[in-house]
Design brief:
By secondary structure, the protein is α+β, with helices and mostly antiparallel strands. It has a single domain (5-195), classed as q2cbj1_9rhob like domain (Jelly Rolls), CATH 2.60.120. The chain has helices at 13-23, 67-83; strands spanning 5-7, 31-33, 53-60, 63-64, 88-98, 120-125, 133-139, 158-160, 166-171, 174-177, 186-195. The strands form two sheets. Strands 1, 2, 3, 4, 5, 6, 9 and 11 form an eight-stranded antiparallel sheet that branches. The chain starts with a strand and ends with a strand. 33% of the residues are buried.
């Protein structure tokens, strides 16, 4: 059974404070994203691609989108690669912001960050918040029929709560999901790694 690997205080308290301050800044260019995971596929279901959220692209396949956040994450990325997953390199970084929602659901529709095996996903939490992240045994690979995310019976095998300075890692092709927050905000940095 797959479980999250959890690393509390992965970076120093001072570095954690800098992360929290920058991500809480009103200057950060958050963008509204109508669908958090996949494109909307059903015009009658506004959540067919996942629930909406705020997003800030930082880095994707060699292209830097948000310079300040990218430079802030270099120390964190180095720590992850040096101490947790040597031989890997980051392919995508994005910041995510959730605000309180009225939906009465345990978690959002689960998704994967990649369909091929070998990738590792990491989530760094810059602040304390409510809204656990859930992990499921189901996984997605290229030759497997995609799971109907809205009608499948999802049974979490692990969950972790957002906590300032906490990092979690898990295989990128395993289904996972965040959940609604009752905090003022739930923020995270989502990082995808692949072997060199």
């Amino acid at each position: 059974m797959i479980k999250f690997k959890v690393f509390d205080d992965i970076i120093s308290p001072t570095y954690q404070d800098v992360f929290e301050e920058l991500m809480s800044s009103q200057d950060l260019p958050w963008k509204w994203q109508n669908s958090m995971d996949y494109p909307i596929t059903d015009s009658t279901n506004p959540y067919s691609g996942g629930y909406p959220q705020f997003n800030c692209d930082i880095f994707n396949n060699g292209q830097i989108f948000e310079t300040g956040l990218y430079h802030l994450t270099i120390g964190l990325l180095s720590k992850i690669v040096d101490d947790i997953i040597p031989g890997y390199y980051p392919t995508r970084l994005r910041a995510i912001l959730h605000t309180p929602r009225a939906e009465d659901i345990k978690h959002y529709p689960p998704h994967t960050d990649a369909t091929n095996t070998g990738g590792v996903s990491a989530i760094y939490y810059p602040t304390d918040a409510t809204g656990d992240t859930y992990l499921f045994n189901e996984y997605d690979i290229n030759d497997k029929v995609e799971i109907d995310r809205f009608n499948h019976t999802w049974e979490p095998v692990d969950s972790v709560s957002p906590k300032k300075g906490r990092l979690i890692t898990f295989p990128s092709n395993h289904y996972h999901a965040g959940s609604p927050t009752t905090s003022d905000r739930r923020m995270l940095i989502n990082i995808n790694f692949f072997p060199k």
